[in-house]
Design brief:
12 helices; 15% strand; alpha/beta; 2 domains; Aspartate Aminotransferase, domain 2; 38% helix
Length: 378
């Protein structure tokens, strides 16, 4: 049996007629950039996320969403941004691109998200923003520090690239990932829970003035064609991506629920096949609604050998992430060294992502976990 790490074709069958109809509509109109399709999708995202009308601003990628968010928060060279070293490169890469300084705090060993208490100890007079990442589909519990951050003049920019649809029950209500801080950043890369057929992203803010500015920044800082209020970038969401994302948005809740059921079945299989001695399942923090963008386990020993074995047996498994950001060669100038963030470094040696996507079959999960048992018991 061959089980891929991701198979988008299984869920595509459900929406194929709608997608093809949307493509025909767009090509007949010959309107490919921004326009009606993007405005419609942005409005539906406003409603889904429970934010004021006009809060969602589509852009060309998740990386651009981070860049635009930082630009809208007036991040300048020398400003410090506190974030996690255990995440995708773009989180800190965009800060460095603006001349800002990524300041790392280690992560929680249970959720893999940034350690909030440690992050707060990193604040200095140069701190301009706090950038938590809702990693693998689970929210970071940031609600308790927002007031203090604002009192100290620090913006919160949420990296929600992997968590569209994740929620958290706190303060007597439901918090949606990407809407808790000053700005939220989303990615619509095809592999995401809400993914397009190419690159795409979105920035979300409840601040109308900032939303208006983001709309200018994404078109070279232009509010009126050929008149530029400031220097922006070219980062426009195209009509094809918006139309497909809008179709998928109506299925997102059901698809996220399916991912959660797959995650629950993995836990049962770990018990059934008696591999709990070797495998630690991901933990859903109390109050969280984890959407399992990735299902990432910890392998106590022989992670790389297990990965090689499973790949050879036809099971798609992968490591997110093999080298923490503080040890990346391009960030050597920051002065970090091995041992500075031991939890992140240990996770990089132990984590392994298993297949989790709508349409994954129970027998495929069973076959994978059975293979894991064979590896550990041989």
């Amino acid at each position: 049996m061959t089980v891929p790490i991701l198979d988008l074709s299984r869920s595509f069958g459900e929406i194929k007629p709608e997608v093809l109809a949307a493509m025909e509509r767009i090509f007949d109109a010959q309107s490919f950039i921004l326009g009606h399709e993007v405005k419609t999708f942005e409005a539906h995202c406003d409603s889904y996320l429970g934010v004021p009308e006009g809060s969602c601003v589509g852009c060309a990628s998740g990386t651009d969403a981070l860049l635009l968010a930082m630009m809208s928060c007036d991040i300048k060279p020398g400003d410090e941004i506190i974030t996690t070293p255990f995440t995708f490169f773009a989180t800190s890469g965009t800060a460095a691109r603006l001349g800002a300084v990524p300041v790392f705090a280690d992560v929680d060993p249970v959720t893999y998200n940034i350690d909030i208490q440690q992050a707060m100890t990193k604040i200095t007079p140069r701190t301009k923003a706090f950038l938590p990442v809702h990693l693998f589909g689970q929210m970071t519990p940031v609600e308790g520090i927002i007031s203090e951050l604002h009192e100290r003049g620090i913006m919160m920019i949420e990296d929600t690239a992997q968590a569209f649809g994740a929620t958290r029950f706190a303060d007597g209500g439901i918090l949606r990932a990407g809407t808790v801080g000053d700005v939220g950043c989303f990615s619509f890369f095809p592999t995401k829970n809400l993914g397009g057929c190419g690159d795409g992203g979105m920035v979300v803010t409840r601040d109308k003035e900032r939303a208006d500015r983001l709309r200018r920044l994404r078109v070279h800082g232009s509010g009126t064609t050929y008149y530029h209020d400031e220097v922006g970038i070219n980062s426009r969401l195209d009509a094809i991506q918006a139309a497909i994302l809008d179709i998928k948005l109506s299925r997102l809740e059901a698809w996220n629920e399916e991912r959660r059921k797959i995650a629950d079945y993995y836990k049962l299989l770990f018990k059934t096949y008696d591999v709990q001695e070797f495998i630690t399942a991901p933990v859903e923090l109390a109050g969280n609604y984890h959407i399992y963008h990735q299902y990432v386990v910890r392998v106590r020993e022989k992670r790389d050998a297990l990965m090689e074995y499973l790949n050879a047996e036809g099971f798609g498994v992968r490591v997110y992430y093999p080298l923490p950001l503080h040890l990346q060669p391009c960030f050597a100038y920051l002065g970090y060294k091995a041992g500075d963030f031991p939890v992140s470094e240990r996770l990089s040696r132990e984590v392994l992502a298993l297949p989790v996507f709508p349409g994954l079959k129970a027998e495929e999960q069973e076959s994978l976990v059975s293979a894991m048992r064979k590896f550990f018991r041989k």
